[in-house]
Specification:
Elements (H helix, E strand, L loop, with lengths): L2 H11 L3 H8 L5 H13 L3 H14 L5 H17 L8 H12 L3 H17 L3 H9 L8 H17 L3 H18 L2 H13 L5 E5 L2 E5 L1 H9 L3 E4 L4 E4 L2 E4 L4 H13 L3 E3 H9 L6 H17 L4 E5 L3 E6 L5 E5 L7 H7 L7 H8 L3 H13 L4 E3 L6 E3 L20
Parallel strand pairs: 3-9
Antiparallel strand pairs: 1-2, 1-9, 3-4, 4-5, 6-8, 7-8, 10-11
Helix pairs in contact: 1-2, 1-3, 2-3, 3-4, 3-5, 4-5, 5-6, 5-7, 6-7, 7-8, 7-9, 8-9, 9-10, 10-11, 13-14, 13-15, 17-18
């Protein structure tokens, strides 16, 4: 390795992308192309960075397997930053195996960490937890240790384990201080700040109260009957009933819970669940059918009683009833939460993360764009979608698989 390549690599390790570029900007040999690609990625020029890394990988000879594997790992990290979540992880897994075989343990661990972070973005929390558990944090350099702890903190937050998240963020802060990378320290600081922001709203019959993540965790662990609008279901104690795929039943449950201990008029329930303001006998008959289905689902936790005006939710054991609402309402709340992370998302990546069809995502984006809540950059397959950060609260409960199902 010549002196300019070594100096450029040291500058990149310290987060000085411009300093690294100054030393190799005019060179086209594979090591210089790789360093230029990493520098461009640090500056946010991800498409250019990807092209440079691919050129570097193809420029290394067959006897330079280690260098090619490092390029594959760097390109995978760029793809993650671009929210390009499609495709297979076979190339990254093979690169990690090559790096481990050649005793480049730091880059091998980085490859494993990239795969785990990708699983987190997709909401596949069990797989992400398994991948992170296989990382040996004691072998990581400070910068990678901070990123690993950030991933562990996000996993804990999206599983609603705030104590574990705080501990991971403390370790991430210590590692970021040792790494002396300002951007990394800023990311850790922002993550720690999010713990103190409102994450949901507690709605009762006559009041509304913002809740932090630790307060949400405490509420779900209490004896209250919670109609959870974040993951769309009803829970009480150890019992949970998902209504994520039954929107009419969830609308009825939420309306009954919001009015507790009072009842809800039949016409109001029809208007809320069936989206009509002119109910007739067919709507009233359908309401009786849907109330019967909801009554059967919540039977272990509560009763739904008919009243002269409508229906009332009555929990067992005189437990309180609470509606847990997300910080922002709307059918596209999860989509807005994903887009507000500052990265540009493709429609295919959003569809993967949300578990929806690409056409459904495109329709939702068109509605949000008409409301000027999101914007698109680029054209055709290079098009990416962005949204401004949502200030004043954290959107962790709106992300895919934000809360445990069990």
């Amino acid at each position: 390795m010549d002196s300019l390549i070594a100096a450029s690599a040291r500058a990149l390790a310290a987060g000085d992308a411009l300093g690294a570029l100054k030393r190799v900007a005019l060179r086209d040999d594979p090591p210089a192309l790789a360093l230029r690609g990493i520098a461009m990625a640090q500056l946010g020029e991800h498409p250019r960075a990807r092209a440079l890394l691919r050129r570097a990988a193809s420029g290394f000879g067959t006897h330079e397997e280690l260098a090619r594997a490092r390029c594959v790992v760097a390109e995978a990290e760029v793809a993650l930053a671009m929210r390009d979540l499609g495709g297979s992880l076979r190339a990254l897994t093979a690169a990690a195996a090559t790096l481990e075989a050649r005793d480049d343990l730091a880059n091998a661990l980085q490859a494993r960490l990239i795969a785990a972070r990708r699983l987190l973005l997709l909401g596949r929390l069990d797989e992400a937890a398994a991948a992170l558990s296989r990382l040996d944090g004691h072998s990581l350099p400070p910068s990678l240790a901070a990123v690993a702890e950030l991933a562990l903190a996000e996993l804990a937050l999206r599983s609603l384990r705030t104590g574990a998240a705080r501990a991971a963020l403390t370790r991430a802060h210590d590692a970021a201080l040792r790494a002396r990378v300002p951007a990394l320290l800023a990311e850790v600081t922002e993550a720690r700040t999010s713990l103190e922001r409102p994450a949901a709203r507690r709605i009762a019959a006559d009041s509304e109260q913002p809740l932090r993540l630790d307060e949400v965790e405490a509420l779900l662990a209490s004896d209250a009957l919670v109609v959870d609008a974040c993951r769309r279901g009803v829970g009480g104690g150890d019992t949970w009933r998902s209504l994520a795929r039954r929107p009419v039943l969830f609308s009825l449950a939420r309306a009954l819970a919001a009015a507790w201990p009072g009842d809800v008029d039949r016409d109001a329930l029809i208007a809320d669940a069936f989206r009509t303001r002119d109910p007739d006998e067919t709507h009233r008959a359908r309401l009786r059918v849907e109330i019967g289905r909801l009554r059967a689902l919540v039977k272990p936790m509560a009763r739904i009683e008919a009243t002269p005006q409508g229906f009332r939710l009555t929990p067992h054991d005189a437990r309180p009833v609470v509606v847990l609402a997300p910080p922002i309402d709307g059918d596209q709340a999860s989509l807005v939460a994903l887009l507000s992370d500052g990265a540009g998302w493709s429609t295919s990546a959003l569809a993967l993360a949300l578990g929806a069809s690409q056409r459904t995502v495109q329709r939702a984006l068109a509605e949000l764009e008409a409301e000027r809540r999101v914007r698109a950059i680029g054209q055709a397959r290079a098009r990416r979608w962005l949204a401004p950060p949502l200030a004043g609260f954290t959107t962790i409960l709106l992300l895919p698989a934000a809360l445990p199902i069990e």
